[in-house]
Design brief:
The protein is of the alpha+beta class. The chain has one domain: Ribonuclease Z/Hydroxyacylglutathione hydrolase-like (Metallo-beta-lactamase, Chain A, 4-Layer Sandwich). Helices cover 35% and strands 23% of the residues. The strands form four sheets. A seven-stranded mixed β-sheet has the order 2-16-15-13-12-11-10. Helix 8 (251-263) runs antiparallel to helix 9. The longest helix is centred in the last third of the chain and has 22 residues, at 282-303. Bound molecules: zinc ion.
Length: 362
């Protein structure tokens, strides 16, 4: 079935996950003509149930996946640590679906709050294991162990890229991570390339970086399904941030490598993304996302008629002013693009005696 990308609310806002970036309609074939209602489920493929979890943020939902696993379900991702999401789970846990086939374990695609959020809360209630990539666990630990140090380090990083009000911005964001819900006891997930058996089916872990350290996609060649997390989304382009912790690395290069890797999977793979509707057209979407970043590179290069810092380039890269979390993610994504171009030898980075980084064309 071919259907146009829905003008969903999910695609209208600049979100925590990224900017709106829709592929041309015929390039993606959605598995359903419209999204299922919030807080409802649909068996989207044999043994695979889609739960559309509503969220009280700009990005108004996340897709969670229930994979039949013997007498129970393996759950992929959990929703935000917020009362609305916990209410949905409380109701769902009492329904025949989960009474007859209880949750037996949780796999996390990555550590972002909309995916990890309720893992500890579910674990407390159900006593089930939760796994996250080793690299994701390490990144999460850095963020949660020393929030003051995290703010100070990132404040210096953003100031070095021209954001004078970095400290105020980061102080305002601190509340985001404090939810009052229990933290999960996390076990290490399988490593990249290793296989899991879920309900008699083999799923391979594909670890892709750039959107989040230790981001896991799960691919079942037998079922022809890819659980793509936030690596490939049909209607928005995931945020790729270069934060202080990533200085000296190339998250955007990693993200593009991840897209190229997924591009090599079978063309007819059914993609189950964390946001938006399930679709076919993985190769087309991966190509379009790579081209989207190439277009951003061209835009930035064209905007560098003189040496400029990343903050000065924000209006070049984004068509509207960003604030709060979006400003932070937008600036870090701009830095990720500039640093990737520097690695490619197309830009030169210099630092003045105030510590400010400027980029110029080579
Ligand atoms: Zn994410």
């Amino acid at each position: 079935m071919i259907s146009p990308p829905a003008p969903d609310a999910e695609a209208q806002a600049v979100t925590i996950e990224g900017e709106v970036f829709t592929s041309a309609a015929p390039r993606l074939r959605y598995a359903v003509p419209s999204a299922i209602a919030p807080a409802t489920t649909l068996e989207i493929a044999p043994g695979v149930t889609w739960l559309r979890m509503p969220m009280p943020i700009d990005l108004n939902h996340i897709n969670l996946w229930l994979l039949e696993d013997g007498a129970g379900f393996t759950l992929v991702d959990t929703g935000l640590a917020a009362p609305r999401c916990a209410e949905v789970w409380t109701t769902l846990l009492g329904t025949p679906l989960l009474q007859e086939r209880p949750l037996r374990r949780i796999l996390l695609t990555h550590f972002h709050p909309d995916h990890l959020g309720l893992a500890g809360w579910l674990q407390d209630r159900l006593g089930i294991p939760v796994t996250l990539a080793k690299r994701g666990r390490e990144a999460l630990a850095t963020f949660t162990r020393e929030p003051a140090e995290w703010r100070a380090t990132n404040g210096r990083h953003l100031q070095g890229h021209g954001l004078a009000e970095a400290a105020t911005l980061l102080a305002g964001l601190h509340g985001v991570s404090r939810s009052g819900y229990p933290a999960a006891h996390l076990d290490d997930a399988q490593a990249d390339g290793e296989w899991l058996t879920i309900g008699g089916r083999a799923w391979q872990v594909l670890e892709t970086h750039g959107h989040a350290d230790g981001h896991h996609c799960f691919h079942s060649p037998e079922a022809g399904i890819l659980i793509s997390g936030d690596q490939v989304l049909p209607a928005i382009s995931s945020n790729v941030s270069l934060s202080a912790a990533h200085w000296g690395t190339d998250p955007l290069g990693d993200f593009i490598d991840g897209l190229q890797r997924l591009h090599a999977l079978p063309a007819e793979t059914l993609v189950l993304p964390s946001h938006g509707r399930p679709f076919r057209g993985l190769r087309e979407r991966a190509s379009d996302l790579i081209e989207h970043h190439e277009a951003e590179f061209r835009t930035l290069l064209a905007g560098l008629d003189a040496p400029r810092c990343a903050t000065e380039l924000m209006p070049v890269m984004y068509r509207r002013p960003l604030s709060g979390l979006h400003q932070l993610l937008g600036l870090q994504e701009c830095i990720a693009h500039l640093e990737h171009l520097t690695r490619r030898g197309q830009l030169h980075r210099s630092q003045d005696n105030q510590g400010l980084f400027r980029y110029q064309r080579c």
